[in-house]
Amino acid sequence: MTPGEMRRLYLIIRVFLTYGLDELIPKIKLTLPLRLGRYLFFWIPFRHKDKQLGSRLRLALEELGPVWIKFGQMLSTRRDLFPPDVADQLALLQDHVAPFDGALARKHIELALGGPIETWFDDFDQNALASASIAQVHTAVLKENGKKVVLKVIRPDIMPIIKADTRLMSRLAGWVSKLLPDGRRLRPREVVREYEKTLLDELNLLREAANSIQLRRNFENSPILYVPEVYSDYCRERLLVMERIYGIPISDVAALEKQGTNMKVLAERGVQVFFTQVFRDSFFHADMHPGNIFVSYETPEDPCYIAIDCGIVGSLNKDDKRYLAENFIAFFNRDYRKVAELHVDSGWVPRDTNVEEFEFAIRTVCEPIFEKPLAEISFGNVLLNLFNTARRFNMQVQPQLVLLQKTLLYVEGLGRQLYPQLDLWTTAKPFLESWIRDQVGLPAMVRAFKERAPFWIEKLPELPELVYDSLKQHQLMQHNIEKLTNQLQTQNERQGQSRYLFGVGATLLISGTVLMLGKVEIYPVWLIAAGLVSWIIGWRRTGQTE
C-alpha cells in the first residue's frame, strides 16, 4: 500500500469511527483483531450517537467526497445488501458538491473546443449554475442561433481521485469478502468493479450526448416527456453543450402545487414514462433521481416531465422484456404459479427448482401488498423480501435487471412524493396488457412482415432456383441414403459370414489339437489345416467390409 493510500485510508477510518460505523463489523472470531483495533484509535470519539445507522452512513459518505457519494448512490440500488432503513438513507444521497473555480472551467472548455469561448458563445457565466460529483454546469448563449445553452464540463481533478479511491475500495472489498460470513455471496469486488465502470462511463460526455439524442428521438413530440436538444457539433469527451431548460424540480412539491399542477396526472405519467421507455423502446433513463427530473412550467393541468443527465441508461433484450411483462401481469393477476414458472423458463432460477415451493414463497411476499394505495406499500421491503426468497432458491440477481430495479425504485419515490394515493398496479396493468397484445397479436405479425419484407423481396426472384436446388438436394440425399443402406446391409451379411467361418475354424483347430494329443496321426493335421483356411477366408471377408 502506497503512502498516499495509507493517508487516505487513515482519513476513511477517522470518518467511519467519528460516525460509529465500526458497528457494521460482524461480531465473529475472524473480525476480533479489527474490533480490538478500534481501541488503537481511542482519540477518535463517536460523535453522532443520536443518529440511526443509515443516517450516519449517508453522512459519512457525503463527508468523504464525490467518489464515495456516487458509490453510496449505487449501493442504494442493491437492496439485497442492506436492510431497508439503510438503503432508504443511501437513496437520499445527492450531489451537493462545492463547485470548482469558474476560471478553471473556462480554461478546460477552451482546451476542449480549441479556441476562446467567445468564438462560439456569448454571455458565458463563470459562476456555475449547478455542481455535481463528476461535472459542473455553466450557462451561455450559442452564437449561431442565439439560443440559451448550458455547458457541462468534467471536473479537472476527478480522474486521479477516482483511480485512487476505487483502488482503495477494491482492497477494502477484498477484506470484506473474507471477513463477512456472507461476503462471497455479496461479491464486493464485483460491486466495486461495476461502480468503477459506471464512473468511467459518466466521464465520457460523448456517451451522454448520444444517449440524450436517442432518448429525445424516442419521445419526439411527446406530451409526457421532453428531452433537451444536444448540440453535438460542440460536444467533446469532456464537454457537453445542450439546450437550457426551465422547469420546477420534481422534489419541489410546494412549487408544483402552487402553480396548480395536476399531481395525480403527473404521478401517473411518471409510471407511463417508465414503462414506455422499458417496454416500447428498450432504452431507459437509469439515473432518474430528483436532481435529474423537472416539470415544465407550461400547461400545469397537463404536466410534462423534463429529463436531463442521460449518462446512465439501460436496455433489455426481447426475451427479457417479454418475461418481465408477463411477470408483471402475472403479479397483477396474483397468478403466482405463473410467476414461478416464468422464472424457471427464463433460467433466472435453476431448472430443478420446486415450483410449488417457489410459488408459495412468492405468494407470502407479494399477497399483502395488493389493493393498497402507494402510500401503504413499501417496494423497498417487497424487493428485499423477494431477494431473500431468491437466495433461498439459488437465484442470482440478473445483471441486466439491476438498473431496472434502481429505476423502478426512483419511480416509486417520485410517485410517493407526488401523489401518495396512486395505485401503481391499476396504472401499469393496462399498458402492459396492451404491450403484450401488440407483441403476440396481428399487429406483431404485420410488423414482422414489414421488417422482413425487403429481404423476402430480394430473395423472391431466386425462389424457383432455390426450390429446384432443394428438390435436387432431396433427391440426391435419398439416393445416398439408399446407397448407404445397401452398403450397411452387405457389410452386415459379410460380417455374419466372417463370424461363422471364424467359429468353424476355431472348432476345427480345437478338434485337431485334441486328436493330436490323443496321438492320432493323420486326421489332426487336416483338421488344423482346415481350421486355418477357415480363419483366413473369414479374415479376408472382414477386410472386404471395411
UniProtKB/TrEMBL annotation:
Keywords: ATP-binding, Cell inner membrane, Cell membrane, Kinase, Membrane, Nucleotide-binding, Transferase, Transmembrane, Transmembrane helix, Ubiquinone, Ubiquinone biosynthesis. It is an enzyme of class 2 (transferase). Its EC number is 2.7.-.-. InterPro entries: ABC1_dom (IPR004147), Kinase-like_dom_sf (IPR011009), UbiB (IPR010232), UbiB_bact (IPR045308), UbiB_kinase (IPR050154). It is found in: Cell membrane. CDD domains: UbiB (cd13972). One of its GO terms (cellular component) is plasma membrane. Pathway: Cofactor biosynthesis; ubiquinone biosynthesis [regulation]. Its main location: membrane. The active site is at D287. It comes from the Bacteria. Belongs to the ABC1 family. UbiB subfamily. Belongs to the protein kinase superfamily. ADCK protein kinase family. Is probably a protein kinase regulator of UbiI activity which is involved in aerobic coenzyme Q (ubiquinone) biosynthesis. PANTHER family: CHAPERONE-ACTIVITY OF BC1 COMPLEX CABC1 -RELATED (PTHR10566), PROTEIN ACTIVITY OF BC1 COMPLEX KINASE 7, CHLOROPLASTIC (PTHR10566:SF113). This is Probable protein kinase UbiB. It comes from Rouxiella badensis.
